[in-house]
Amino acid sequence: MIQDFFTEGIQSGWIVRDGAQLQEDLLLETEVVVIGTGAGGGVSAEILSQAGKEVLMIEEGPLKTSSDFHMKELEAYPSLYQESGSRKTADRGITIYQGRAVGGSTTVNWTTSFRTPEETLRVWQERHGLVGFSSVEMQPWFDLMEKRLGISDWLIPPNENNDVLRRGCEKLGIPTHRIRRNVKGCFNLGYCGMGCPTNAKQSQLVTTIPKVLESGGQLFYSLRAEYFVHDKGQVKELVCSAMDQRGTRPGKRTIRIRAKSFILAAGAIGSPALLLRSNLPDPYQQIGRRTFLHPVCVSGAVMPFEVSAHFGAPQTIYSDHFLQQSPPEGPIGYKLEVPPVHPVLAATTLKGFGLDHVKIMKEFPNLQITLALMRDGFHEESQGGQVKLKKDKTPVLDYPLTPYLWEGVRRALLSMAEIQFAAGAKQVLPVHEDSLPYTSWKQAKVAIEQLPMEVLKVLLVSAHVMGGCAMGQDESNSVVDSSGKLHSMNNVYVIDGSAFPTSVGANPQLSIYALAAKQATQLLKELKS
Amino acid sequence: MAITRRQLIKTGIWGSTGLVTLRLLVGPFQSTIQLPQNSEYEFLFLREADKKVLAGIIPVMLEQALGDTEQEKENSLHWVLQGVDEAILGLTPSIQDELRELFMLLYFAPTRRLLARVWNPWLEATGEEIRNFLEQWRNSRFILLQTAYQALHELITAAWYANPASWDSIGYDGPPII
């Protein structure tokens, strides 16, 4: 029996409240409100609370803990993901997997931990004018967070899904490397995406949030932060709606929270949406712009042996070969990784219906899936998307798919097919409405070169939403300054992935942790002075 | 589009189609299928008419994945309908509204014939007709129809493969016991 110490903590007196249970409107007061409990919010809340600040954390999603994590897609997607795991861009061209629960995306991510690549930090400084983001200046924050969250080398051999990527690359002379993970005592199960049932993953749910609660901080979940009330460059109040029992609609109760400082960490999409709802001064119309996704295209392969891609640490091998072919400002580069393959993820990802779909699903045990993550936001033809508000004031990301991106998608589908055949694939199936299972690299190459690169034809997904409240020193192309402070308000700080001025070019969790540690520590100094 | 949802509601045609019977005739199998009467699941989104649309489409989308015997197919269909209902309830209100509209267009005979090219009601339509409908929408040059096809694909395949009853057929053992 795994110990569920979050539930035990609540029993021991942690102050944790559920918006859905609320019977009356409330007016609360605190020193610091942290909006969002993911990578940015969790780390910020811990740093401030450990320094003695009175912290109230707010989370729109539900509270689910290790004893709720049954490794079932049926339960996990509706309860732990934005829009049940089917959030989509405005034209439905990209499906976005983003967490929505206490712990945010860290509760459901695959534990992949990379430092922000050097060339990304270089572009942020040179082109976006960020101050304090050199590799040397960032190193202590990476060191600190790696230690805090148990990020270390993963010594267990990769599962077959990852190893096929490694072997295929090796055959073609493409270098691969091992992925570091934020786990302690991991059972190597492969169900990280449905919430870690053993508390091995060092998500915010088991690290920073418990620490905040132990020190008297408070958590209010099933509570949607709607908008700021502001006056003369100062936010006075945050207005929130308690969600209904199902968590998809606001319920009847309103909570108003007064505080000295507000940390906005609702994630890219969520953070800019709150700012848009608040009618803040935005003279250059920058809020919500430059939102990036690392759009991912997918290639399936049927191997002549069992892969069992649902089993074992999901991501342990990667290749940056195709990121390093040209500088970030050149043709779009992509990172190669693999996903865990569970029945629903496989069934919804694989195209076709009827017998075609049945046939490919029968290959489930032998399926190997490879992903290519596009590094968006570095080229002038890659300006990312824009977060907008729908009629009901909920956000939608409008992410236009440009020829610049499609050129990279085609190249990536080719690279992945070649690698999968090199690893011995019987069939390769680029995930595209018009593609067929191809039985040789030669055949696949000819076909992929012809496939139309069009929205909805090519399956594109994203698990990395970044930007929308870009940092920068120039107000005409940014929303916050290098310290995360909103240009338009004196007491609001955006500390999450939405502050990145481009995509990261690597799975972003560690970049967000380090950013949060740096920004929250800086903020603490300011609050003290 | 000639007929908007508002008009549908105004004319009351939509309102009069609520059905009480649970007996659903499934076209492609040319057999009568009955939802288990002892089911305690209460549908909160799907109306009887929506279920009829889906009961026509699901067996074509999933084909033999639903099982070999009539009893298996019947049970599977029930589970998929329930799974789709539950999945839709987890979507945002605006997406729920879009799906409501989609099911109405698919159910209402003039729009079903015009847009889906399915002449007979879903439960009387042949598998061939429904396959053609899915292929046409899948490859349509109208983005709206393409997205509708993809929504149906996603809802139906997710509902079925989330269900442990489907796992044996694809060689998935289910989650480990810890």
From TrEMBL, chain B:
<protein>
    <recommendedName>
        <fullName>Twin-arginine translocation pathway signal protein</fullName>
    </recommendedName>
</protein>
